[in-house]
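User: structure tokens for this one?
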Amino acid sequence: MNPILKKLVDGVDQIVSEPSDKEQYDRIVIAGKKILFDKKTHDSISWLREPTDLAVLVTGVSDLIAILSEKSNGTIRPDPAMGAAVTLVADVLDFTERSQGVPVTQEIADAAVLAINEKMSEGGAEQPAEQPVEEPQPQPQPQPQPQPPQGLIGAGA
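Assistant:
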């Protein structure tokens, strides 16, 4: 694996530190990899055929985590889900680098982590039905954030 991606995956330990979270993280990653890279399913995942668009890649991984969560009857906790999403994004980037020769730079890895964190946070904002919904609090205007590159290849396309 690309050293940048390896460092990224190794950093997941900061997100997933509890033993029970680590166990769930491992199960999510194994299930995700099976779906992503098993010949029976791999060819039917359109964004894996040409995974060079970061937004599409992140949406695909986020959707995969959501499907796995649904199949687990909502028992997947946020920290293992976030860690698994980061790991699966890194695995897809590694796959892209190996299969299509698209080099993964630190900028791409950073943009991918930022994008998957944002995407997963969007999905995590929904509250379970049995919890009361709190009144929204006024929020300060967010500062403009740097936008991740629209495609992974940039000038190399």
